[in-house]
Design a protein that fits this description.
The structure is a single chain. By secondary structure, the chain is an alpha/beta fold. The protein has one domain: Spore Coat Polysaccharide Biosynthesis Protein SpsA, Chain A. The chain has a 7-stranded mixed sheet, sandwiched between helices. A two-stranded parallel sheet has the order 6-9. Helix 5 packs parallel to helix 8 and helix 7 packs parallel to helix 8. The protein is globular. 46% of the residues are buried.
């Protein structure tokens, strides 16, 4: 199997971290924990587990700045090493570690970017209320229409990139923090001509810990999508 690294951002994930790391260890991947100085001790636990588990590494950041900056730090760290495939996923088990080999397999079979998708045939969401479903599905539909792409789950955060994708899309110009980060990275990959596939997954809302969702994250996605489209149109002129 190609050398695969899972980038796992954490902020106050003390109860989820150890079971997630042990579950990922069974999948033959390395894990980079990216901790944003969690006040609950997640970073300290990550260090203890890294000393025990040889497939775990920890990257500490000084403060919480959002999901996007945490992933970008993880991507740069992974690209500085020998990773061939770089994954992103949540630490709260909303993404099932058992699906990691399916995303890796899709890239091994020819995709450049595999997305764990809730909104293609076979994909589903569990334990969400109606409002959360509307916000998520509506956000993906809004982005798909404005950007003119066929990807159904643009806001999803369970992905497997071929190394060449992240090397090509110029990570240094990406400043999105929440849902918009997921939309922007996938859109940039599509515009660069990479082959993107969606793999159906079941997304289950977290059972332990608190959600990181906020009104600011939603607002960022609303204005960022037309900004991305406008920038793309200007690039063609």
């Amino acid at each position: 199997m190609p050398r695969a690294v899972v980038c796992l951002p954490t902020y106050n994930e003390l109860e989820n971290l150890e079971p997630m790391l042990r579950a990922l260890g069974e999948k033959g991947v390395r894990v980079l924990v990216i901790d944003d100085n969690s006040p609950d001790g997640t970073g300290e636990l990550a260090e203890r587990l890294a000393a025990e588990l040889d497939y775990v590494e920890v990257l500490h950041r000084e403060r919480k700045e959002g999901l996007g900056p945490a992933y970008l730090a993880g991507f740069h760290h992974a690209l500085a090493g020998d990773a061939e495939l770089i994954l992103e996923m949540d630490c709260d088990f909303s993404h099932d570690p058992a699906d990691v080999p399916r995303l890796i397999g899709a890239v091994e079979s020819g995709a450049d970017l595999a997305l764990g998708s809730r909104y293609v045939e076979g994909g589903t969401v569990r334990n969400w209320g109606l409002l959360r479903r509307i916000v998520s599905a509506g956000g993906s539909f809004y982005a798909r229409v404005l950007l003119g792409v066929r990807v159904h789950d643009l806001t999803g955060g369970f992905k497997c990139y071929r190394r060449t994708v992240l090397e090509a899309i110029d990570l240094d110009v990406i400043h999105s923090k929440g849902y918009a980060f997921q939309i922007e990275t996938t859109y940039r990959a599509l515009r660069a001509g990479f082959h993107v596939v969606e793999i159906p997954i079941t997304f289950a809302d977290r059972e332990v810990g608190g959600s990181k969702m906020s009104k600011g994250i939603v607002a960022e996605a609303i204005w960022k999508v037309p900004a991305l489209r406008l920038a793309a149109l200007r690039a063609k002129l």
